[in-house]
Amino acid sequence: MRSILIEHARRYPRWQLADLYKLVHQSAMGSEHAVADEAHARARLTREMAEMGPGPSEPLIDPISPNAEVVRVHLRPYRREGFDPDLLLNAFVQTARQLRGSPERIEAGLAEAVQLARDGSIAFAEVDIAAVSARMRESGFPAVHHSDIYVVEYRPAYRVVSRATMDRGLRALCGEGEGAMGVLPEYRGLCAEFAAGVRRTLGEKLYAVYICGAVTFPETEHTGDVDFHAILVARPTDEERAGLLQLHERLEREASPVGTDLDGYYVLLEDARRAMRPRHLLFPEIADESWALHRAHMLAGRVAVLYGPNPSTIFAPPTREELGGALDGELDYVARHLTDYPGYCVLNLCRLLYSWETGDVVTSKAAAAAWASERFPTYRALIALGSSAYAGRATAGDLESLANGLPAFYSFAQREIESLRSRRAS
Q1: Are 2 and 116 in contact (CB under 8 A)?
Q2: CB-facing half-sphere around the CA of 188: CA atoms within 13 A
Q3: Are 210 and 306 in contact (CB under 8 A)?
Q4: 0.70 exceeded by pTM
Q5: Contact indicator for 234, 205 with CB cutoff of 8 Å
Q6: Is the domain 175-313 a CATH 1.10.357 member?
């Protein structure tokens, strides 16, 4: 719930305590308070979709529970895409009838909010959140309306549904195949809407959409991008290319968690079947320099299949030589960008050290950093600084210490990797 609360505080800076409580309540209880009967729910949905007018940019699917069991489906993007209101109505009504909420989850969510307020991560006083929690507990945790300020500022228009009640038709429209559950909860809405947009743009040219990288590792706390590979059976037309670029621009502006980009490749199926690094269909001057590593991750199961077959039906297993070359390319990238992205460079050096020492290239930056902190305790403090910088939590003093210590860590890692490479070659 922590990341969801932080994201809503960022997206709705003028929200009030009532709005925070409503978010936590909906996360735990769903929409049970909102449906008197189906006819009334249908009339209200029809009226709201007709009269809601413009509003802020919001994602189509907005997970509001830690495991994405419960989501808000925002009506403006739903209507903009021309989706069937009856599919949403059915999920909404069934959620009210079937979802059995948990007051304990409300208490847990409010306790997390108290901790966030204590840490300064959300702009409420912890004593005020605690008071709301006590008052609502005494009243049996009732449902509440959004605050007047929230209604005026953000004009909320959504329906709360549980994922279990979304039939195949609604999941297909929203792009939320089973594979979307393979990524961290706060990124599932973005991935679902991305898959749906790519499918609408490319139609039968689209063969598969895969998500890999940090968002498929449960230990990840922060990432700057969502890695993807979209596999096409034919080259996109100029119109389709423009449509894809517009989709990326819109999603990174409206639906993406703060600081997150969609970073990946559109490649031909025939190229994806080869070991040679494939060219990006939208930007032919770019090739996937980490192709061997990406294949290794996806073939090892660190992948969310948003559309299409299992990756094992397409990708060839990378050879030892290919993986070594790809790791060398990662080290070269770090060498060129030590001063540009110090946090990333520290974590990637940890990952490179782990991969060369263990022979396992399928790991996250977070896991590799934890491993390297134990394996090389001399650099434990620097690795902690790198993690803070990568997550955007470092102070000016932290960044200065990181800049001063990074060259020595790079030199150490370079020597260690060369030694490991030599041992493996002998």
Answers
A1: yes
A2: 28
A3: yes
A4: no
A5: yes
A6: no
